[in-house]
Amino acid sequence: KDEDAKDDGAKDDGAKAVADEAAAPVPAVAPTASIDTKAIESLIRWYCREAGVRNLQKHIEKICRKLATKVVERREGEKIGDADKSTDASEETQGTDEAAADDDLCVTEDKLSDLVGKPVFTSDRLYDGALPGGTVTGLAWTALGGSVLYVEATALPKSGGKGGVTNLSVTGQLGNVMKESSQIAMIMARRQAALRLPEERRSFFEDNDIYLHCPEGATPKDGQIN
User: Fold this and answer.
1) Phi and psi for 32 in degrees, rounded to 5?
2) Is 150 in contact with 135 (CB distance < 8 Å)?
3) Residue 3 confidence (pLDDT)
4) Rounded to an integer, what distance in angstroms lies between the CA atom of residue 111 and that of residue 104?
């Protein structure tokens, strides 16, 4: 685990180095323009989880373009303001406007959603404390090696009455491998039920349909369910 932590740290450091290089033109846009370190870390964690850094560079370039647009709009506004402003405008008011404009060019973590949209990834933790009944944690394959996901299952009585084949419905944008794993898990569960459940409960799968769901369905998932 320590080695994994070191590897993750090395990836983050490498991504930050690339981010710093990509953000180098930002001061050229305007001397007061900058991207906060926390904002770069949030880009890496919540927007650009990937083995490489190409997507991170694209996000920073997008931010630079929007900063450049703000600078152009501000300068155009200053030209119009210079033509229309009264001669008795106070220096204090001008200084306040310039400070507000400079703050608008400083990219912080809170401003990312306005510049690059909502985070693609959310926290892997959906529950605090003990998991509710019918919920377990699993692992999904990703380009970075894997991520924790929740698997939620529930049973509903069959609408057509008891007996017949049990229907297994799986949702959450699962890949073919994970769908097959769900079918295998269903077979194993039925086998164990026949061996271990008391006689009065062995008809559980004949009396109910099973629904299986993996949250965060916008994230494609594939690989063996562990």
Assistant:
1) -90, -5
2) yes
3) 38
4) 9
Whether the Cβ atoms of residue 151 and residue 136 lie closer than 8 Å to each other = yes
**DSSP structure string for 44-110:** IIII--SSSSHHHHHHHHHHHHHHHHHHHHHHHHHHHHHHH--TT--HHHHHHHHHHHHHHTEE-GG
In tens, the pLDDT along 81-140 reads 666 655 444 555 555 555 556 678 889 999 999 999 998 877 666 777 788 899 988 776
Contact predicate 116/59, CB 8 Å: yes
Residue 69 identity: T
Of 35, 15, 17, the C-alpha closest to 25 is 35
Taking alpha carbons only, the member of 116, 109, 21, 18 closest to residue 67 is 116
pTM equals 0.54
Buried b (16+ CB within 10 A) or exposed e, 175-214: eeebeebbeebbeebbeeeeeeeeeeeeeebeebbbbbbb
DSSP category for residue 199: G
- CB-based contacts of 171: which residues, under 8 Å, 6+ apart? 211, 212, 213, 214, 217
- φ/ψ (deg, to 5) at 35: -120, 120
- Site of tokens 């703050």: 103
pLDDT band at 210 (very low <50, low <70, confident <90, very high): very high
